[in-house]
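Z., the sequence and structure:
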Amino acid sequence: MNNYDIIKQAILKKQQITATYNGLHREMCPHVIGKKNGKAHCLFYQFAGQSSSGSIVPNSLENWRCIPVDKLKDVVAREGEWNTAGNHSTSQTCVDDVDVEVQF
């Protein structure tokens, strides 16, 4: 299964994703996957791991990450607590052509 399909299934099952992005380990919950400017992107809520934008603060409204799917490495879906933020219903600009979005 490719990265896109792993993430898509994780959204449908409300699973966590672990992956490497820009050389940093990430633990995230995917919320939306689809295309932006013709390229596959996913909107994640990162709840643990490393980030080039600083420390991950639990439950922060700032933990949203828009990541090109083809830049992720070692993508694994796993069971675990679903993480999101109180602003999850805010309009997102990460994905223009939505394929799958998490259901609350």
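The chain has one domain: 3-101. Residues 3-13 form the longest helix (11 residues).

Let me know what you think.
H.
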